[in-house]
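Bench notes, afternoon.
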Amino acid sequence: MKKLQMTKTKILFIGTSDFAVPILEKLAHSEFIELIGVVTQPDKSIGRHQSELGQSPVKQWVQTSSKKEKKVQLFQPEKLRDEAEKIIELTQPDLIIVASYGQMVPKIMIDYPKFKCLNVHVSLLPDLRGAVPMPMAILKGYKKTGVSIPIMTEKLDDGDIIARREIDIDDDETTESLTKKASNVGADLLISILQKWMNGEVKPVPQDHSKATYCTQNDISKEKAQLLTTDTAIDIDRKIRAFYPWPIAWSFLRGPEDDKQMEGIEANAQFKGKRLKIFKIKVLDEKYPNKKNLKLFKYENRLILRADDGWLEILECQLEGKKKMPGSDYLFLANDKCESAPII
């Protein structure tokens, strides 16, 4: 007796970044799904001299997995809107899944699939619609965020929600660690809801548009990553975690004799004007209030940053022109010693 062949749902996946890879992988390994195509961003010039071509994490996954499994059609349009109709004709998807792609998805793709076009978005919509919800959740000091799966529309992240799940944001959470956490939650959530969605068992929930907030790529520009004289210890901690692994929080160094109103961290005058990138920091318990400038100190083998309202220990940093090293290897940047331990 012949086995009944299960009809699989044809899915077109659209995504680019590391966040998208676990979602794509779960879809590709699902028994009820046929992955018929993947759309990702074109290869881009990388390296100091822009002499190499870098592939998106999604493309890398497709090329690696296609050696073991059925080969998947890969599309890398410069502008998706110019090639959307052709991609739809070639793939004829029942469902489109979008995760961290980097271009607007055109109307023809949103309207075509029988089971709609779904987006895996990392925020509890309608809060933080837009391109960079994960670093913004950290910058805003959220203790929780989440993954939402809305039905895509021509507007930005405003569609009805078919599923959502909360995620805790740990005190030491970075955008890098939150991306890994959220991508796995998003993949599990999507797979858990898809069959119910396609069977008509899920009633989408409209968003409350009056509560919508937005974030754009400009919110995490290199300029926004600069540490300011007015930043509190908590502000600095959030910036360093939110802007890791890109663009990395930074500050100019200035000498002890420079105007205290200048933006920058007071340090050894020998390094005045140099840029210091800070990768990892620890907020300390002891407070040192009402000092309206940032200043470096050394205490034993620890590099300490005094902020407007408290102390922080720099655990990992990089001076312009030098290597990324532990803060203990950069003690020469500080002029003064702490008279007593600021914590611990």
